[in-house]
Specification:
The complex is a heterodimer of chains A (about 110) and B (about 120).
Chain A (H helix, E strand, L loop, with lengths): L3 E4 L2 E5 L4 E7 L6 E7 L5 E8 L4 E4 L2 E6 L4 E6 L8 E8 L7 E2 L3 E6 L1
Parallel strand pairs in A: 2-11
Antiparallel strand pairs in A: 1-3, 3-8, 4-5, 4-9, 6-7, 7-8, 9-10, 9-11
Chain B lengths: L3 E4 L2 E4 L5 E7 L6 E7 L5 E8 L5 E2 L8 E7 L2 E6 L8 E8 L9 E3 L3 E5 L1
The chains are: A mainly beta (about 110), B mainly beta (about 120).
């Protein structure tokens, strides 16, 4: 059964820093991997979706990479801002018709 | 992206009552919807997979008689928490898998429903 792990669980940085959030998964035979943002008490906002055939996706200051062979994905946030403060969730799907399996998230706090 | 609407967004009920949460795909059809629950500061845990016109598939440890799921149409799935107790208080989120079109196969999430059982 797929397990998704995220490290670190929490991270505090000053504004302007570049940072990396890590995600690992036990079953490398994934269909896709997705990064989400969740603000306190709110639903999910999809950030980046990487298909199994892709190695990375970029959106603005965000870049997500995927290395299936090692079972890892990273989310790179450039020039962090206080508005980036949120919990970031990594999730993977094993097959097209299955649900996303989530990690426990990394809670990011960016101070001004 | 496509829109998934959950209703109600929050609900408070007394212990012993039943609460129904609706998950609607507004601009696409979904043969499959997934229900998750999230405890405070925890991740999303998959509860069940809801398939249109058939019985839901529940994850291990989830009581199917307590969490009734109905997926009567291609745009609506409902989760009913029966005889709710304070330990059922949680954030419930649904996800719908687009059947066809430009979003085929993609998953879209509702905004979640916060249940508080007194």
């Amino acid at each position: 059964k797929q397990e998704v792990t995220q490290i670190p669980a929490a991270l505090s940085v000053p504004e302007g820093e570049n940072l990396v959030l890590n995600c690992s998964f036990t079953d490398s035979a994934i269909y896709n991997l997705q990064w989400f943002r969740q603000d306190p008490g709110k639903g999910l906002t999809s950030l980046l979706l990487i298909q199994s055939s892709q190695r990375e996706q970029t959106s603005g200051r965000l870049n997500a990479s995927l290395d299936k062979s090692s079972g890892r994905s990273t989310l790179y946030i450039a020039a962090s801002q206080p508005g980036d403060s949120a919990t970031y969730l990594c999730a993977s799907r094993n097959q097209a018709g299955t649900a996303l399996i989530f990690g426990k998230g990394t809670t990011l706090s960016v101070s001004s | 992206g496509a829109v998934v609407s959950q209703h109600p967004s929050w609900v408070i009920c007394k212990s012993g009552t039943s609460v129904k949460i609706e998950c609607r795909s507004l601009d696409f059809q979904a043969t499959t919807m997934f229900w998750y629950r999230q405890f405070p500061k925890q991740s999303l845990m998959l509860m069940a997979t809801s398939n249109e016109g058939s019985k839901a598939t529940y994850e291990q440890g989830v009581e199917k008689d307590k969490f009734l799921i109905n997926h009567a149409s291609l745009t609506l799935s409902t989760l009913t928490v029966t005889s709710a107790h304070p330990e059922d208080s949680s954030f419930y989120i649904c996800s719908a898998r687009a059947l066809a079109g430009g979003w085929a196969g993609e998953l879209f999430f509702g905004e979640g429903s916060r249940l508080t059982v007194l």
